[in-house]
Model the fold of this input.
Amino acid sequence: MSQVKTQQMGRLLAAGSKDLIDEVVNKLAELNALHIIEYDGADEGFNLGTPKEEAEEVGKRLSKLRSASSLVNVSGPKKPVSAKKVRSELENNLSEAVEHLLEKSTRLDSVENSLSSLEEEAAVLELISSIDLDVELLSGYSELSSFVGTVNDLEMAKEITKNSLFFSGVSKKTKVIAVFVRNSDSNDTLSQLNSSGFQAINLPEDVNGSSRTLLAEAEKKIDTLSKEKSSITEEIDDWTNEFGESLVCGLELLEREHDILTAPVKIAVSEHAFFIDGWIEMSRSEEVRAALSKSCLYTEVSPFVVKAGDGGHGHSGHDHHQEMPPISYKNRKVSKPMELLTDAVGRPAYGRIDPTLFMFVTYPIFFGMMLGDMAYGLVTMSLGALVMSRAGSNEMMNLGGKFLVYIGLGTLGFGYIYAEFAGWEILPHHGHNPAENLAFLYPFELDHGHAWAAHLPFGIELAFPFHRVTPTSDYGNLEHLIVLTIYLGFLHIIFGRIIGFRDVLFYGTDHGHVGLLAAFFEHGVWILLLIGGFMFSYGYLGPDEAEYMMQPGAIIALTAVVLLMWTLYNYHGIPLAISLLLAPIEAIGMMPSVISYVRLFAVGIVGVKIAETGNMLWDPMKDAISDDPLFVPVFFVGWLAVQFFAWGLGVFSPNIHAARLHFVEWMRQYYDSSGEAFEPFGFRSHHVEVE
Done:
């Protein structure tokens, strides 16, 4: 059960001679174990440290590499390379290559800007060239007003301006006109032109000569610049292929150096000494103390102990709050990908239950219940394996790939339970489909479509295979699945409240309440409400022999509502009059939380129906084999397209709903996401080996 709690943390204090501060910083970077608490300058006699002289130069080089990295799409090597090799490249060809890339990028920006301007000018020149007038003749008159633009109806525009000087032309089906009128008639002419759909053209400035000649010159410049743009783009692509991995590695190494060189600004220093304060994992405390013993005159590690009811991370209205340590997860292997889910919400407050291990179990189950198809499970697992194979040293991609494998396993497992493959039932009650060829996976006798069935208390029906597609009138389990999802929501939410009960019992609430009584009113009351509500609902909706549960269930639920009024008043500080009104509303609000789990049934059925729609193409395709073979590829591609659409939607939608059930319906029952991530000073090797 150690996996359900985060790492125990301790506070490290270390001090020593100022002359050895660089040695200590290097050792801490090598250890990658201390989450430094930056010095705030509050202690008399101590100041912030100063970065080393080399920091400015390294910062400049780092800035150039970051600029270069933003210009190209690069990825690091699949295996970490030696720091010595990266340093050699930085000192030699990489620096020159980066300068060359930046110059090429600057020139590319200039070319693209010129191209954009020339293309706009050429578009205008192409329009006015159809009028066959020199550009300078289209404007600049003192006694005349000119209107040059496009119209929808050329004849209408000509009729409107019959008493004016009128020129027209057509450029690629676009009707262009130039109209010259006396200044006194300009307003009336413009108003009439607008009625014919007139759109003015912005004429190029400071340009003289034939528009056709100017257009030819502009097109020649555009051609030259386009070739230069293509050439520069190819050079940048070649640069990326040649230096991309070196750039990633050099960037990582320089960031390491820069962090080390600027680390003293986080440390308190006096004229002769330094003082370091930070958090470490207690499992590494002896290792860190031993490593610092040669460089520090004093080291002390104090295990952190939560003061129960002290308001956690400062959410209560108390004036004093315990400074809480950052949160470090337990060292996991199999369940580590689920940390992506926990981090999406926020890490748990210190001492609280870490939900990661629980989601490792429930998330694939929820996802699998919804998607539940063997074919889609195999495709999802294959995608996860592909992502993992491309991840290299990218830990995030590797974890994402494993996550896909896990939910794919859940989908495959439930697909086997449902006996579904690509939207077909493997064991249909009538008809024939290609999935029937997988019937060998079920080597047992089927009694009314089931190898095994159980009728459990409270109307729970379990069976294998569990037919969610087959109509209930035959031997389907569709209605049973609805009931199971409601019970699953009931148990999942109660489990969340039990976790909350434990957290308040030992660590208290943000309002400073702690102990058994506080745990009961904060979470136990809700558990009573859920149990009472279930008893009443089952007694009312269930079989006649369950009616005896209605009265005790109603009593328990009403008692819980009364106790909830006291919880809101005494433990949350809500005025009594408001608590009396709010408690029944919040109690009723628990019902939609439980019913929300019905989406585990509904989302899956929608996916099945989409797949079934695509499968309707299968019979016409079989008929076309003998009647019209040319249509076979058409039907097959159509069927494949629907299947991939159903799978893509199946991966996207069930993930949203599984996340909602965990993040909203379950976690809100107990979860405090105020934990700060543990970020130790130092380096983990991504692309460059640690020296």
